[in-house]
Amino acid sequence: MTSPLDLLKAIRSGRLQDVRAVFESGVTLETESGQGEPGLPMGIACFLGHVDIVRELVGRGAKVNLPDNAQPTSPLSMAVRGGRTEVVRALLELGATLPEGMQTGLSEREVTVAQWIAFRDGHVNESGQTAEQVPVVEEIQVGRLSNVDTQVLEAEMLRAAMNKG
Crossing angle for the helix pair 16-24 and 4-13, nearest 10 degrees? Predict the structure, then answer.
């Protein structure tokens, strides 16, 4: 029989297939830390930088947001403390709310793009942010480009997103 401890061991190993195997054996996601705080599996995955495992945990119901993402045990804070910018980016793309002033290791542009991806993919921020509060960005899909400077198009899209309209 598999235990919640096996889930933590699988996460620490960084092997996604082991994490999936533990879930298949019937272990539940929310294992508490010694202090009674839920979200320990997600926190460990974020701190260690296992992006695929973070995405798997979210797919199985792990929360990307705490009531206060500035708390040291929030997934976002754990990723920042571990210096895991790829996990920070993934969390933002999955709808994590970025506390004002938090240094993530990402540029302003990277944060803006990640937040736009979260909106585009329909992830709802737990902060209650509505679609009206998120900048409207028109996505244009072009089958084929000829003689077009895509850097100019990208710059215009980023400028519009940063100016919130």
Answer: 170
CATH number for 149: 1.25.40.20
Tens place of pLDDT per residue across the chain (165 aa): 577 788 899 999 999 999 999 999 988 776 554 545 568 899 999 999 999 999 999 998 888 988 889 999 899 999 999 999 999 999 999 999 899 999 999 999 999 899 888 888 887 544 445 344 445 666 667 666 666 667 777 787 788 788 754
**φ, ψ for residue 63, nearest 5 deg:** -90, 135
Residues 6+ apart with CB under 8 A from 105: 80, 83, 85, 88
* Residue 93 structural domain: 4-162
Alpha carbons 100 and 103: distance in angstroms, whole number: 9
| Angle at 88 (CA atoms; ends 86, 89), nearest 5 degrees | 65
Structure tokens at 28: 């539940």
Torsion angle, CA of 143/145/146/152, rounded to 10 degrees? Answer: 170
Total domain count, the chain: 1
